[in-house]
Design brief:
By secondary structure, the protein is of the alpha+beta class. The protein contains six helices and five strands, in the order αααβαββββαα. The protein has one domain. Strands 3-1-2-4-5 form a five-stranded mixed sheet. A hairpin with a 4-residue loop joins strand 4 and strand 5. The N terminus is likely disordered.
């Protein structure tokens, strides 16, 4: 009996004061179930947090682009870097004649400022060995510029010192641009490693390239949750809900858009232009008359 007590005491001390009990299968299943519940609850929150972080970087990029465009305008008599002839010389030679390449290197030093973190083709800008002479560079940026500003009034609307909207804070300047998916291999420019993006132009109806009058690839996407980030002519960056716009049949006039002062809605039947409407978010292609304010 004495030997038994000593043996029991020895076992008690060996296990740190008490004998360890094995984990049962039921307890293990309970722990796994709790972990599963936590993962189910936390993953959506983590996904939203990552999406918000990407959207924040994108908005910062758009503000950087705005600063570059503002500097360009200051040194080019108020002109945006359009394809039309401005008072100062524009890009020439073998490099693509597109707006964003005219910002390098004097106004925008880092081309990665033109890449959105949620753009699946953002690597194209980084992998270009010679961006200035790359024949496909025109389709590389994640952002596009309002093509109405570049083409209306024979291209003179890009002279913002003499043509200015009545609501610059609500007028689209630059925005997220696709396509990000859904294109066919036959639609892809040779060796471009991805879809064409209309030379970085946001066409108001995705129907044609406003400068060449050729059919254009759709650019409207839902890159940040329900929509895209848009930089306005007044320097603000806002999010526009595009999922509703993409499900809505395109029209030449929308009551809420016209009421906001949209020029495309109020041009009259003779000059009507079918266009996307972002009026729900108080954003418009142009506001006010197209007149020379000299």
């Amino acid at each position: 009996m004495k030997a038994t007590r000593l043996s029991t005491r020895k076992l008690y001390l060996t296990n740190g004061g008490m004998a360890k009990r094995a984990t049962t299968l039921i307890e293990l299943l309970v722990v796994i179930a709790i972990i599963g519940i936590l993962v189910t609850v936390l993953l959506p929150s983590l996904g939203r947090s990552m999406q918000m972080a990407s959207s924040t970087v994108c908005k910062h990029n758009l503000r950087t682009v705005y600063q570059s465009l503002s500097l360009y305008r200051l040194e080019n008599d108020g002109w945006l870097p359009a394809k039309v002839e401005a008072p100062s010389p524009l890009a020439s030679g073998s490099r693509p004649d597109v707006w964003f390449l005219k910002l390098f290197p004097n106004y925008l030093g880092d081309p990665l400022a033109l890449t959105c973190p949620e753009d699946p083709y953002r690597y194209r800008m980084a992998q270009s060995a010679d961006l200035m002479n790359d024949p496909h560079a025109a389709d590389y940026p994640s952002y596009g510029i309002n093509s109405f500003m570049m083409t209306a009034d024979g291209g003179k609307l890009a002279d913002l010192d003499h043509h200015y909207p009545s609501r610059p804070l609500d007028t689209i300047l630059v925005a997220d641009m696709g396509p990000d998916a859904g294109f066919n291999a036959s639609d892809t420019a040779s060796n471009s490693r991805g879809p064409r993006r209309n030379d970085g132009l946001l066409n108001w109806d995705d129907g044609y390239d406003a400068l060449s009058l050729e059919m254009a690839d759709p650019w409207l996407v839902t890159r940040h949750g329900r929509g895209i980030n848009i930089l306005t002519l007044g320097g603000g960056v806002r999010q526009a809900r595009t999922d509703d716009v993409m499900r809505t049949e395109i029209r030449w006039r929308y009551d809420d858009c016209a009421a906001g002062g949209c020029t495309l809605c109020n041009r009259g039947i003779a000059n009507r232009l079918f266009h996307y409407s972002f009026a729900k978010d108080r954003l418009y292609w142009w506001t006010g008359p197209i007149t020379n304010k000299r």
